[in-house]
Structure formats: structure tokens, C-alpha cells
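Data availability (excerpt). The following record was deposited with the supplementary files.
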Amino acid sequence: MRTIADALKDEIHYPLPDGFVLNKLIERDLAGEDYINAEIYKSKAFKGAVADCLWSLVQAPNISEADKSVTLPDREYIIKLANTYYRDIGEAEKTYGEPTVCFGW
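Predicted structure:
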């Protein structure tokens, strides 16, 4: 049997820290150690966690690990893919622009 966390990692196709994956599942009210089933896999919560993890790849300043890297065209594809999930679950799409730096918070 596969856990929800394992299924989420498999959907992303890019290594993300276990803690990050578990945090995204918690945000979506899913327990990573529970077993995945068709109902959970098709749920808005799981799809939202997938979209959140994909979106995190777009936000990363430098995406390169374990002989894998994400280029600018890859990021554009990932944004489209993440937004497909967000639209499917009725959430607002994300946009990606130029990074901003804030000083003196």
C-alpha cells in the first residue's frame, strides 16, 4: 500500500523535501501517512496539494538537484500545469512575474 505522501511525491516528478510535502498535505487537511485510494487521489485536497508543490518549483530561486534542473520554459509549463489543478478545484490561478526584493520589513 502507498501512502498519500508517496503518491504526492510521485505526481511531482521532482525531489522535494519530505517535510515540505507533508506540510502541503497538512495545509490541505490530508495525513501523509494514510494510505492513498481513488477517492483521495481524485479529491480537491490532493489535487490542491499537487498544485501547491508544483507552484513551489516555480517559486524556487534555483531549481537544480540530483541531476535534474528546471529551466525557464519548464517553469512556464509547470505554471500551466499547476493552474490546471487550481482551476479544476475551483481555486484562483497563480501568476509568476519578476522576483521582488523587500528591505526593512
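Summary of structural features: The longest strand covers residues 64-65.
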